[in-house]
Amino acid sequence: MRKRYGILGKAICILSVTAMVAASFAGCSKKDNENDTNVNEDKKTEETKNPNDEVKGLKAYYPLNEVKGSVKLEDASGNGYDAMIYNKNNMHTDYEDGATFFSDGAYLEMPADLFRGEDTLTISVWLKNYSGAVNTSALYFGTGEQMPVNYWLLNPSNTSGSLKSVITDGDNKDEPYKTEAGISPSVAGNGTEGPTTGLGWNHYVTIITPSELTVYFNGEKVDTVKHNKKVSDFGDNMVAYIGKSAYTADATYTGFIKEVKIYDEALSEEDIMAEYKANKPEEIKTNAAETEIFIADRADPYVTKGSDGYYYFTASYPMYGANDKEGYDRIILRRAETIDGLKDAEEKVIWDESESDSAFRFIWAPEIHEINGKWYVYFAASGQANNVWDINCHVIACDGNDPYNDSWTDKGKFMSNGTDAFPFTGFSLDMTYFECNGRHYVCWAQNGGNSNVYLGEINPDEPWKLISDSMLLTKPEYYWEKVSIPVNEGPAAMIHDGKIFVAFSASATGPEYCIGLMYADVTADLLDINSWTKLDKPLLTSEDLIGEYGPGHNSFVQDENGEWVFVYHSRDEKCYKGECGYGNEDPLYDPCRSARVRYVKWDENGMPILNQ
């Protein structure tokens, strides 16, 4: 489980292929394509024509709107290039219309004859990538060695977050990737850097000719790169995949795929733009609103209102690059009479890891809570100096009634109830607290195979230990919870209109980071998992935002008028584009997650809405 490493499901893509279009694909082999196309065109009126109906050299077509059968997906072009299905149970077609979601090693193997000897090709595909910025392949053909010598592959988001479409231009058996030419090749100088691609639906087109590789992204030309090696030079030992490459060290693709089309000719710019316009997704940000940064460089923000009338703010104190010796080493606090006043309030260090014999940096996700009239801070810290892997939940207690000015005492690592051996072992963090129906609870994230969220009860007089066994509240189950890393973390509680809501953050901390939700009746037994309902869609994703990405690790608080506010962190868009100065750093050392504030809205069923 990686907490701060590594860098979302609401767009509905319009699939406008009609039954007549499918008929035009059927029986359209290369040798009789012209005759069949003419016959089909005669049956159409001008009003029913669609850019998808113009089948020019279509050799294979995989709509991927439904994976039928147990082992085979039919080639809808009618040319017989049926694909074999592997790990079908990890392909799902119930998430989005007209697309299949690939995860956990699912892939298709296309017949190698589809590409063997074809020196001119156009490869078109629609993707909604959830793999993150990693070495993966959505489409591949080439030789089949574990370190393939010759190949073409499409990676929708390489380790820099950029589109990668490359063809090998040599025969380096030891380091074939060094021969790549195209868009975002492994060796600079063998092509050009591709655009950043994000997490929405995108259309990728690659044209390969005997001497050039040209790439289009969402209808627009990216670049043309020269190469010398032809596909026919790859030989006979070839394989072809949707959802993986022959590189055994690379991850399989995670995300939606639809509309894979292989042509044995080079499509024109007009054809490519027509394909994009005919199938581009509907506008998905109609409810989005831009927000300004509330407090810069403060991740995992937490805001609460005390009985003294003040609002208090705390958050993770960042590292500014890997060589920063001061980051993640303290707990900071602000206070003001209003939430807005926290933005410019003086920030104090109320506690430092040098004051403890048991808690060392890295200190993450502090939360300040008033429990039974006394103040406590829950936070994660390492049990060893400079060891990022010995992270567990810790507690400090205020020695007086003024958390902003009074001293604090270290209470040590959070304790289990003495009979449950699991809590706070190995890797635990992100603890929060809430009171519901007269009982007091803590909720936290812990490595239980993946990063899961757990719930336990406490005595408010000793809120540094459990009085119950821990209960698994939520674990990564859905595609949006498992991008790059399967993660549930950062729980945050809110009680409204008879329900207790626990939001949580999911996936790795790049643009894939998002907010999910559990809820239960306030009168229910909260330590019974059957009392809880989990939503199968996230409440807030990067697709809901403008100019920011990776929303997560939020907290809830009521403003001066009793309206619910959620405070969360996200990264500015310039960070995603590598313009912040820390783009080459491990995200652990990237300070660019900043606190932002939005209001909670409510639907007719009393459920919270975060994406407006």
The count of β-strands is 38
Fraction of residues in H or I helices: under 10%
* Structural classification: mainly beta
- Taking all residues together, what is the mean pLDDT? 88
CATH architecture of the largest domain: 5 Propeller
Principal-axis shape equals: elongated
> What is the top-level CATH class of the largest domain?
Mainly Beta
What's the topology here?
Elements: H1 19-25, H2 33-42, E1 58-62, E2 72-73, E3 83-86, E4 91-92, E5 100-102, E6 107-110, E7 121-129, E8 139-143, E9 151-155, E10 164-168, E11 180-183, E12 191-192, E13 201-208, E14 212-217, E15 220-226, E16 238-242, E17 255-263, H3 269-279, E18 299-305, E19 311-316, E20 330-336, E21 348-352, E22 360-371, E23 374-382, E24 391-398, E25 408-413, E26 428-436, E27 439-447, E28 451-458, E29 471-474, E30 488-496, E31 499-506, E32 514-521, E33 533-534, E34 548-558, E35 564-572, H4 573-576, E36 593-599, E37 601-602, E38 608-609
Parallel strand pairs: 11-12
Antiparallel strand pairs: 1-17, 2-3, 3-6, 4-5, 5-17, 6-16, 7-13, 7-17, 8-9, 8-16, 9-10, 10-11, 13-14, 14-15, 18-19, 19-20, 20-21, 22-23, 23-24, 24-25, 26-27, 27-28, 28-29, 30-31, 31-32, 32-33, 34-35, 35-36, 37-38
